[in-house]
Design brief:
339 residues, SGNH_hydro_sf, SGNH_hydro, 11 helices, alpha+beta, Jelly Rolls, eight-stranded antiparallel sheet
Length: 339
């Protein structure tokens, strides 16, 4: 959607609140059908960007992070010129709970960047400014100063990958929004990302399945299931939810590649909890029972192979773990869809 001549990428709704806008990755009617926590997490800006072309030599962007009890006080935004990370004078930007304004200056050698991007078939045109919003909490858009224009269609990839999952799919504990496994996988595959991560609340809701199935803008999708309900659901309830979730999506998109995974290596494996393998078998069996050649199961333990890839909470991958997941996931996807 467009606002102030800016494309709000991976945003479906901008709600005016006070001096800024609350940004939601799904429409209101979808939020109404999600579990309560997921409805709130829909406002987390993981995989979301401000995209625009600069007419003036510099612009000022103002953002504000919402107060949070379960996340750090400050968030991290990143600035890119197409596929090129902006220099360290511009990125990263620390976004606080006070209105935070930062300046983006157009590179003097933008024509050279554009030529390099074209000659090397990079994902994005270097003229396209991308502000990657913090992945881990709600970030409100306040304003932009300076002359800008909306992106052109040909400046971004036409192919898109959708990723559904927990806070791990959100990006925790990546060091920044460009380092999440979903974002890195999209980069390696040369596609754009639609992030449907729901921190602490990926409950395979029927409303989420229906919404994902209704969208026609993604070419293939990944689904991470299990970790958010491991401690609160018994295997029988998990099996029922997985079955209805995967069937709803597969029935609508029998011609698209669907990649399903379960819990990445985590504390439950370190403790040899047998329930972990039960959950993994449930996902595998339900994917296989679809009987579709384009529905692929990948064990989470094959994507994150070592406890060394975890942060100290033994649930979320570290920055290195996020990168490992992206490497293995990219390889698995390429085995099926090609380059």
């Amino acid at each position: 959607m467009l606002l102030d001549q800016i494309e709000l990428y991976n945003i479906q709704e901008a709600v005016k609140v006070g001096d800024g806008y609350r940004l939601s990755r799904v429409p209101a009617f979808v939020r109404e059908g999600l579990n309560g926590h997921a409805a709130l997490r829909a406002f987390n800006t993981c995989g979301s960007e401000l995209r625009f072309r600069m007419v003036s030599d510099e612009v000022k962007v103002t953002l504000r992070r919402e107060h949070a009890d379960t996340a750090t006080r400050n968030g991290v935004a990143e600035v890119f010129f197409g596929s090129f990370q902006a220099p360290y004078g511009i990125t990263p930007q620390v976004i606080s709970t006070e209105a935070t304004t930062f300046v983006i200056k157009k590179p003097d050698h933008i024509d050279q960047l554009k030529l390099l991007a074209k000659n090397q078939s990079m994902r994005f045109d270097a003229e396209l400014v991308r502000v990657l919003l913090p992945y881990d909490w709600e970030c409100r858009y306040i304003s932009i100063e300076g002359e800008v224009l909306p992106p052109l269609a040909e400046q971004s990839p036409t192919r898109k990958m959708l990723s559904y999952g927990s806070s791990i799919t959100h990006g925790g504990d990546a060091l920044g929004p460009s380092g999440t496994y979903a974002m890195r996988t999209a980069e390696k595959l040369g596609v754009d990302l639609i992030s449907m991560g729901f921190a602490g609340s990926a409950h395979m809701d029927e409303a989420a399945a229906r919404y994902i199935a209704s969208r026609e803008d993604w070419e293939f999708a990944t689904f991470e299931m299990g970790i958010n309900v491991f401690r609160i659901w018994e295997p029988e309830q998990f099996a029922e939810k997985v079955r209805s979730f995967v069937q709803a999506i597969a029935e609508q998109h029998r011609d698209r590649w669907l990649f399903f995974t379960d819990m990445f290596t985590c504390v439950h494996d370190a403790e040899d909890n047998p329930k972990a393998e039960q959950f993994r078998r449930i996902v595998q069996e339900n994917v296989e029972q679809l009987g579709l050649p384009n529905a692929v199961y990948i064990s989470g333990r094959k994507l994150l192979t070592s406890f060394a890839g975890l942060s100290a909470d033994l649930i979320h991958p570290s920055a290195a773990g996020q990168e490992e997941i992206s490497e293995h996931l990219t390889r698995h996807i390429l085995q099926h869809i090609g380059g």
